[in-house]
Amino acid sequence: MHPEALRADVTGQDPQVLLDDLRAWAKTLGFSQIGVADVDLRAAEPGLLAWLAAGFHGSMDYMAAHGLKRARPAELVPGTVRVITARMDYLPTTAPEGWQAIEFDRLARPGAAAVSMYARGRDYHKVLRQRLQRLADRLRERIGPFGHRVFTDSAPVLEVELAQRSGIGWRGQHTLLLSREAGSTFFLGEIYVDLALPLTEPVQPHCGSCRACIDVCPTQAIVAAQRLDARRCISYLTIEHDGPIPLELRAAMGNRIYGCDDCQLVCPWNKFAQRAALPDFDVREQLADPMLLELWRWSEAEFLRHTEGSAIRRIGHERWQRNLAVALGNAWRDRGDEAFAQALAHARDAATPLVREHIDWALAQRERPSATARAAGPARPAA
Q1: Is residue 153 annotated as part of the catalytic site, yes or no?
Q2: Is 213 within the bounds of a domain?
Q3: Of residues 14, 105, 137, 153, which has the active-site annotation?
């Protein structure tokens, strides 16, 4: 998009009718909600700078490198005057009523592996990006060529801030976006456009004094309301972080091997979570009820085959094994099943230095006292 391509008006179109049509087209593509945000995010800049200055982004150096470009859409994509925001629900259609309790049970089951719900189907980056582009194409058919660019967690974009300003929801205490109609089990995507579409109104926050997500976090990564230290977050540690897991956080990871849903499982608003409209987010057979030992036995070739088209593939086999080694160590400590120790020991000699370090830690866990972060089991929502 270039400044000379700016179309600040939508000549020949009723802007509100165009927005209504955009919402209708989006629904046919599997989106649940559409909003429109302005590009003036100056009010968000101090918070972003403070978060970066505190080092809460960890090893995600690209966040610091992009700096304030995240809060300045018109600098990221010159000519942008509006941002179309989109919500797509991902809770699998097979998720039964009471799915939160089932997921908490998985965290306490001997030998079970916990994979974040959003990652059990197809990679959302691909699904949303393709469908956002199709939405932009449909808009072009109506009004003619216009400047635009689509994003899905793929560039320096303040997704939650934009979605909040456009009325998709409000920022929860855990920093995720929350909706009264859909909880937090949804993905966000954006289309930066040079069209002066009508803005949609933000909604009021409804967390009140609730701090369930703050209290349930296994590693206490939510250091204050709406303030997350990614360096302590299990999602960051198992996905974004490519080095050794900090020793002091390994026990608290339990059997979480890819991501962490605890703050969403305990959130009262997720009783309104919506099932996915697309089959893309249906659970893969291998991830329907995975067991640690079963996943540990995957060769790199099997890992690549089972995770083809999945968001999990991006971490690679080495980090996959690193995460599993930590989980097996926690299981070995808490359950005492010799099969865990045997599987770890058998793989040690052929492991990479990173994985071997975590195997050695895991094998040493049976010698440690059981009064660890997981001794009392995972926290549960109040009845």
Answers
A1: yes
A2: no
A3: 153
**34 shares its domain with 143:** yes
| Domain tally, the chain | 2
- Rounded to two decimals, the pTM is 0.91
pLDDT in tens, 209-261: 999 999 999 999 999 999 999 999 999 999 999 999 999 999 999 999 999 99
Question: 157 and 13 in one domain?
Answer: yes
Length of the chain: 383
User: Do 26 and 163 have their domain in common?
Assistant: yes
Q: Which domain, by its residues, includes 299?
A: 291-372
Same domain, 183 and 318: no
